[in-house]
Amino acid sequence: MSHSGAQTQKRRTFLGPIGLKPLLLKLLFFVLLGSVFPGCRTVPIRLPPPPSPFIKRAIKPAVAVSSFDNRSGFEGEWRIGNGMADLLIAELQRSGRFEVLERQHLNEILTELGYQRSPLFRQEGRVRLGQLKHGRYLIRGVIHDFSHTSGAGFWAGLRRLFLRGRISEARVALTLTVVDVESGAVVGTASAAGYAHSTAAEFNAQYKNVSFGGEAFYRTPLGSATRQAIRESVRQLVRCIPREYWQPMIAEVRADGGIVLNGGPEAGFEVGRFYQVRKPPAPVTCPITGDVLDWLPGPVVGRIRVIGFESRLTVATPVVGSHFERGQLLEPFREEHGEPTP
Description:
Helix content: 10-25%
Number of domains: 2
Mean pLDDT: 81
Low-confidence stretches: 1-38, 153-159, 200-204
Number of strands: 20
Distance between the termini: 85 Å
Order of helices and strands: HHEEEEHEHEEEEEHEEEEEEEEEE
CATH architecture of the largest domain: 3-Layer(aba) Sandwich
Oligomer: single chain
């Protein structure tokens, strides 16, 4: 066989089923990456779901996303650190499982609030101060891989994306870390990877005039790989971030002694029913590390009875006790037995 014939045979072998094996092995590696590295720290649940007849409704955890740390080596025109954070925020919002708070541009919000306090602006339309929400969890990300390679060995990760080859593959790998804002402890991590490739006879791709995160971006191999990595990471976050549930509580104590509860009949409150009132649970901590070991039920304050509904709220009156306050918890109570409903 001539030298040129040997080169042709070698090139065909690379493009055939045998040549695809390295690609499949790399795909398997990135799939395993998401199953080996993610981990969730066991966190004691402060309050389990309320007993029947109350509804079981999960509360969306309030999360904030910081800019990603780009360690991929990509130095193109795209600012993928901020861009990847924006894509994660959009996917978290799309999932419907989180309440996403603005933190990257918080200074702009604070500036606007400052303008509204200025005497140069009219009083009408001012927003109330002290209403910005607290974040329970902070999500920070690291981009480990953001590259597009061709079968001919051309790497297109720096400065400019230009590919020419028989087979090309795009890879995006990232890791998310979830931090409990209250304690600073890491409660979970999510490692995900996306992979896309093309086997066109002659592949020429120049990412020109393509904006990161735009519709055209998602039609590219890197865009497809990015979407896979982001969506897989959000699926892992849903499993990692601890769930908290709506609880029947006192929402307000009126001046006339009336007690307003934080829900209506759809939440499980019933007219004429008695409820036992407790203070919020107290944490039990380790004397060495200070970590929360468990939560103990708060002491009983008294007992109330539901007398009616107002819009989406429930109105009750005290039966036993007097030190009722906003945020105290409620338990169904059977008057005839003199003890809480199990």
